[in-house]
């Protein structure tokens, strides 16, 4: 694994969070027990364990003492991660930072670490598979809510993310579940949508990218969840985070029960989608239909 994957603050914080939760449970303590023992507020313990905040080395040592952790190698590794988790290290330039949401900044770091990414999109192709023309069109939807510089930065970052998934040798396995209706929406016009469909079909030829189409007959059940992405950060089934994106907000969720619920829903729907080959056929057929209509003209 590359250093960039190991050293991102968000991922280091995730490792500390998981280790502390595991140690607390091994010590048979509740979060309330810990707050009482250390004379901390319960919310402080909860924020540290949920990954909402980083942790100082002093606080980390205090927790490890309460949990009776004596493994020096583990303590050293956690201290290393605690230091990294509080750094302001970014995978984009400092000029880009202020134009990205906190959730997106975390997502960039988790994508760099992820081994498997499961994404569901009910309406559009996700940013990592968007063509430049499609990305520009979709970012234009925000109109006055985003400045011109906001849109430019988000476009650049979207293209950076796309290159990681579609061109990087050690790219994660990317599983996209896309609603069938999304193939039929002529977003940006026939030419832009035809290009997008063809680009998606080409991306799906990569061994790490798997696209499956949700049948229209499935109804609106999964669509009610909205777009979401589940990222596996290692082979440990608990080392997972959830990213949710809405029209004007986004968030990274660490809560194990919530993440597990979304992953289970994804897996359940994935098994009922069109097969990978049939899905690719649908994408190509829709692209061909749009190309034909462009040739025929209005």
From TrEMBL:
The keyword DNA-binding applies. Keywords: DNA-binding. Residues 20-73 form the HTH cro/C1-type domain. Gene3D superfamilies: lambda repressor-like DNA-binding domains. Pfam families: DUF5753, HTH_31. GO terms for molecular function: DNA binding. The keyword DNA damage does not apply. InterPro entries: Cro/C1-type_HTH (IPR001387), DUF5753 (IPR043917), Lambda_DNA-bd_dom_sf (IPR010982). It comes from the Bacteria. This is Putative DNA-binding protein.
């Amino acid at each position: 694994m590359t250093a960039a994957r190991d050293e991102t603050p968000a991922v280091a914080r995730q490792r500390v969070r998981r280790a502390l939760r595991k140690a607390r449970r091994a010590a048979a303590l509740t979060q309330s027990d810990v707050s009482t023992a250390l004379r901390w507020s319960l919310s402080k313990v909860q924020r540290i364990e949920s990954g909402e905040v980083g942790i100082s080395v002093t606080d980390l040592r205090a927790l490890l003492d309460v949990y009776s952790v004596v493994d020096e190698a583990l303590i050293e590794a956690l201290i290393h991660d605690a230091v990294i988790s509080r750094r302001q290290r970014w995978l984009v330039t400092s000029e880009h930072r202020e134009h990205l949401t906190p959730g997106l900044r975390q997502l960039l770091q988790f994508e760099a670490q992820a081994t498997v990414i499961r994404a569901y999109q009910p309406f559009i192709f996700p940013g990592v598979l968007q063509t430049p023309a499609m990305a520009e069109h979709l970012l234009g939807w925000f109109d006055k809510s985003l400045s011109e510089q906001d849109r430019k930065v988000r476009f650049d970052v979207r293209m950076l993310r796309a290159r990681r998934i579609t061109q990087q040798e050690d790219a994660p396995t990317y599983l996209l579940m896309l609603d069938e209706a999304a193939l039929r929406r002529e977003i940006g016009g026939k030419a832009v949508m035809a290009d997008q469909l063809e680009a998606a079909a080409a991306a799906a030829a990569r061994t790490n990218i798997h696209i499956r189409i949700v049948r229209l007959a499935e109804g609106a059940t999964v669509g009610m969840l909205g777009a979401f992405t589940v990222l596996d950060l290692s082979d440990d089934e608990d080392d997972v985070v959830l990213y949710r994106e809405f029209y004007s907000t986004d968030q990274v969720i660490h809560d194990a029960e919530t993440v597990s619920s979304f992953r289970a829903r994804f897996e359940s729907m994935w098994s009922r989608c069109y097969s990978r080959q049939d899905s690719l056929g649908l994408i190509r057929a829709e692209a061909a239909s749009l190309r034909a209509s462009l040739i025929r003209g209005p």
